[in-house]
Structures are given as C-alpha cells and as structure tokens.
Automatic annotation (TrEMBL):
This is Uncharacterized protein. Keywords: Membrane, Transmembrane, Transmembrane helix. The lineage of its organism: Eukaryota, Viridiplantae, Streptophyta, Embryophyta, Tracheophyta. The chain crosses the membrane at residues 27-48, 84-100.
C-alpha cells in the first residue's frame, strides 16, 4: 500500500535523497522564502509519507530542520543581547570617563 501522493517508491527515495542533500546547507538560505517552500514541500511529501523507510527518513530530517531553526534563533538572540550589553558597557564607560572625571 502506498499513499495516493506517493505512487512510486523510487520517487519517495529520491525525495529523501534530495532532502538529505539540501539539509547539508541550511544556513545559506535560512531566512529566504525558499526555505519556507522547502518546509511546506517537505512536510507534505516526506513527513506524511506512508512508506516506512521514507517516513523514518522524513521524520529525522524534519526534527533536524526544527533543531537548526531553534539553534539559529538562540544564536541570533545571544548575539543580539551580547552586542546590546557591549554597547551599554561602552556608553557607560564613555559617560564615566568624559562626564565624571
């Protein structure tokens, strides 16, 4: 039995191979609309697949993709707050040097 969206097992395996290749390079396209389309395509054609092997492959890639999104958000937040604290420190130092002394 195969799902109506996946009539051919070779096509299913091809989808998994393509996603394995694309997910090696997520940071280059991370905030582009391309990755929104990839996520939608991936969800409908791999994550919901009825074929067992491609379903396992799709789930692993999906979780890996979500992990990369979380990692990127944490990285951006850390950089943002680090820069903000650095500028607060520099402004405080500037104020202390030029207005206190």
């Amino acid at each position: 039995y195969t799902h109506i969206l996946y009539p051919n097992l070779k096509f299913n395996n091809l989808i998994c191979k393509v996603f394995k290749f694309h997910f090696l390079f997520p940071y280059f396209f991370f905030f582009s609309p391309f990755w929104v389309l990839v996520r939608v395509f991936f969800y409908f054609f791999c994550f919901l697949n009825s074929s067992y092997m491609c379903n396992v492959c799709g789930r692993v890639l999906w979780y890996f993709y979500v992990f990369l999104w979380v990692k990127m958000y944490v990285f951006v937040l850390c950089v943002y707050y680090t820069c903000m604290l650095w500028w607060i420190f520099l402004c405080s130092l500037f104020y202390f040097i030029f207005f206190v002394f």
